[in-house]
Each structure stands twice: as C-alpha cells, then as structure tokens.
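Structure ticket #2291
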Amino acid sequence: MKLAQAASAVALFLFTLLPGCAGPGPELAPIAPLSVEASADGGAARSYDFSGDGVADYVERLDAAGRLVSIRFDSAGNGALDGEVRLADPARLASARRLLIILDSVPWEVVDEVRRQGRFAAFGPPSHIVAPFPVLTDLSLNEFFARSPAPGAEAEYFDRQAGRLVDPYKVYFDQSNAPWLADTDYNLPFKNHWALYLWPDPWFARELHDIQAQFTATPDAACMVGYCAGTSALGARYGRSGHVRALIEVDRLCQWLLRRTQGRLEITLMSDHGHHLGRRRIALLSDLLTRMGYHVGKTLKNPDDVIVPEFDVVTYAGVFTRSPERVARDLVGCEGMELTAWLEGDAVRVVGRPGAARITRSPDGRLKYAPESGDPLGLAGVLKGLASAGKADAAGFVSDADWFDATMRHEYPDAVDRLWGAFHGLVVNVPDVLVSTDDEHFCGSPFMARYVDLIGAHGNLRQMSTYGFMMTTAGDLPPFMRMRDARADLAKAGFALPDRPAPAAQ
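Resolution: structure written out below.
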C-alpha cells in the first residue's frame, strides 16, 4: 500500500512539472510603443524600445488607415536609426523571405476585431477562409495543400478495407491522418498535444519560440511554414480571451521578425477553420443510439449495428452503419443534433427538423439543392434569388461559383458544395452518416469532456466554426475564399508556396 502511495506521489510530482517541459518562450517586440506621434498626413509614427534602455530603436510609420508603410531601425548596431525600408519598395520585395504561420482554430471574427484595434498593421485585411465540412484540421489543411483525401475524417475511423476500427492514438501520434504535414517545416509533435491542451500557455509559447528559432537559424531558406496547435488549446480553454492573447503575441513576434530581417520578410498568417466560443454540453451518441435500440460496437454485420468514433471533442460526429437513412432520421430529432446527412446512390440527402432535401450534381459539375419536405439548410430565399438572376438552369442546377457567391454570408456558408464534397473526395473512409450539432452541444471523447472545461469548439456547418482567416503582408486577398482555392489566391497576391513531394506511404 505504501509503495502504491509513493508511486502515486511521484507520478503527481512529475505531472506538476510537465508545464515546465514546454521550454522557453519567444523573443517578442515590446507590448506597447514608447511613443506615438501623429503625422501631417493623418498617419502616425510608433517608436519602440527593444533594448530596454529607454531610447527608441525601432520606428513604424503608419498611413491614415493605420497600415504600416515603412520601418526605421538601427542597421549598424550603434544606436542610430540609420536604416529605413518602405514595405512597397520593389527591392525589398525581390529579396524578401517568406514565412507562413498556421494558427489552429482562430476565427475570422476575432482576428478582424484585434486588427481594428491597431494590431497587425503590416497586414492586409483578413479574408474569410471557408473550411470544408466536417470542419476539422486535417481535412482543412489537406485541402489547402492539395493533399486530400485523408484516410479518415478524424483519428478514429472504421477502416472499410480492413473491416475494423483503427487505433486512434496510434493514428494521432504517428500523424498518419495528416498528409499536409509534409508541407510544413515546423509543428509540435502530436504526441505532445495532450500536454498542450492541459497547459496551453507555456506550450504555445514553446511553439512560437521554435518557429522563431528555426526561422532565424536558416537564413538561406526562402520560405518556411510553421503550424501552431496552441491557439486551438487557448481558445478551447479560455475562449475569446485565449485567442486575443495569442494573437497579440503573434503580432509582437511578427514585429520582432520584421525588425530582425530589416524588413526583408513577407509574412502570411492563416487558420485552418474557426472556433465557436461559448460553453456547451456533451452529447454522447453511443449512449443515445444504444438507448434507441441500436447495437454500438466495432463491426457492421447487422442492420442495427453502428460504429461511433468518439475521440475528438467537436461539434460534428460521424456514424458508420448499414442503415444510414434510419440512423440519420432518428438522430436529427434529438437534443443538439441540428443536421444529418448521408449518401443515397449519387445524391447527398440532408435532414433537419425543418425537413429534408436532396443535393445532386450534373455531369458538368453544377449542383442542385432540392427541398423535399421543408428546407433544412434555409436556402429558399437563395434559390429564389439565383433563379431570378438567371443563374439556375431549367433543371435547377447552379454553378459552383454562383453557389459560393450566393451563400458566403449564410448561416451555413457554402453548405451545398461542402456537403457534397464531404462524401466525394475529402475522406477515404467516409462515415455513412455525418452529423452537424448546434452550437450548444459537442460530441466526442467523454474523457476529454471530463477534464477540459470546453469553451471553444468547431466541426459543424455554422459560420463561426467554418470561417478561418488569412492575411498577408504581400497584399490584399479576396474577402472570401474556399480552403481549396486559398493557396492559389495567396500566390496571386505575391506569396507563392513551394511545391513539396508527397509524404511517404505508411
């Protein structure tokens, strides 16, 4: 007994030390300028003291709109501000290195607010990136880097070829569901993510430190891509405040890097998707389906068999079953279940409490949303507008681009294309039923639900979960972009990412 108590005490002691294992944080620009002076053209000059001696050693000049125009710095290290670079100078652009930082789960709305308060002055306005559905990191970044399909929607999935559930811990820790990682130069190993979600502050600081250190240690590298999971953990734990704190640190890191490179740097920031912020309750689908009379297990032999992965903590769920329509219709009436969808022949069927609809695709790639009873996606007004504008053909099919333009600001952005894509090419082992919860509920791991007080979550079709962001110092971007188009749009703005070889098969 004493031995067991001693072992427990040692384990607890080691557990308390784990936050310190994150390591050092990054060097950052001062939190606030030493002084701000208005200029005659309506702009301002912000002076910073990086050395801490009370004397300005870095100056940013802003235009009347608050956009960074030029920087002044001490180029010789003698205390004199003898260097100046204008951001629009062609010579600077020709010699600039490129840095892309991916910030997991940061919603467009929060970035826009932080920028309007004076942060990220070097960047153009943040664009909305519409993530695919389900709104999950691997699926989004696979689309961005053209690495789709992923083996599963999440780390736990039913491998149809093997006829078994995969081990989600093995999949997650060996990163085999994330081929997009081949396009990054830095990411915190996934095996450390459990610690990051328990202690997000020191581990996020570690991620920024590592990106900074790797970037400064490789001056000949023309382009670097870093990925931070810590913003997801901060948002999940602290909600909006966690995201704001993280963004302020990222802005200060960008200022530090611009000063370090003497302006010869283009930076792009983006997120993989958004984050709905607010407390919610868990909806355990395995318990719910069991109480309904289904047999929850690991095989699919009988019509009542269902497999319910519950690994992630998200506002989406996938169910594997031989009876998709029955399961989808039974689930959608339950608390927290907003929409369900399944594949029926060549059509995607979607049901919600308002009714059911069918999504079909023409041979030339146009999509049709046809309400059958009610209007589960709330698109009646959109359909009327498309028809009156002559954008729907006689059979009701609408082009991909017109659907996007008509539903960018809808509560379910680009839902027709995203629901179609969810069953066609996004994932190899597609769940038979896809579930989008409301914003007050989430599905997934009861273990994580017990130990993490969840404030931020993503996964469903709704706006704040869906809208990630992208902004760059290279120029302005379209206000709305699909994730699969964002890389090409970024290249048009002058920030091209290199093509990299595909990851080796595992």
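Closing remark: DSSP finds 17 helices and 27 strands in the chain.
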